[in-house]
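Shipment paperwork, digital attachment
Item: protein structure file
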Amino acid sequence: MPERRRITGFSNPTVKALRALREKKHRKREKRFLAEGLRLLTDARECGRIPEVLVLAEGRDPHPLLAALEDAVDAAGGEIIETSPDILSKITGKDNPQAVAGVFAEFDTSLGHLDRSGASIWLVAQALRDPGNLGTMLRTGDALGAGGLILIDDCADPFSVEAVRASMGAIFTQQIAQADWPEFREWLRAGSGQLVAASLRDAHPYRGAAYAAPCFIMVGNESRGIPEDYEMACDLRVTMPMKGRADSLNAAVAAAVLGYEVLANLD
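Attachment content:
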């Protein structure tokens, strides 16, 4: 059995350091983030992402996937910690924490590490502020078979506990890049790629529009939408019908609806 270190005190420096990863400034300084739950950590392991630190709640039920996770962490030279459910709750910030949590190194989020030819669909979010929406877009991208999610301008932190939780493991299956608008536009125009946005400006019906791969589907800020000059820089603007009183869709929902239409047209 892999060696474990037992922690019993709330004031232990390791507990304080792990708990601090719930705050963005500490995550950025340490370049590490928290993820919790056996299913999510198993997804990470199957994608080749092994936590640097694995935290287990004492008294948990044995599980073959948990044993495989421990073995992987041990083989990679990581640390395995066993502690009480109450201390694990303090680390994760959940009153009812899962029996396992992991600390991962943040990924390379530069545009340069993306291979645009690796997928026919990519999702792009501009100034998306809700970490739940961000996590949902990652999950949607996974379902679509998208290459990843590109975050433009001042977006929520993809490595926050809330975004990681909402991604349901897609944080490990989807590539993530972060850039400002000029950098993204220069990168996009340096190769092939069609930029598509939902819009009311000179827009075509979204059903059966002339989509082309690789297709970059862009959604905007939850309250302000996409800036007009960004929309006008798109190769294709499409509109989705609103049959009721609502004048817009949730950003992550809009990405899903449009993404599946693009997928149907590109298949």
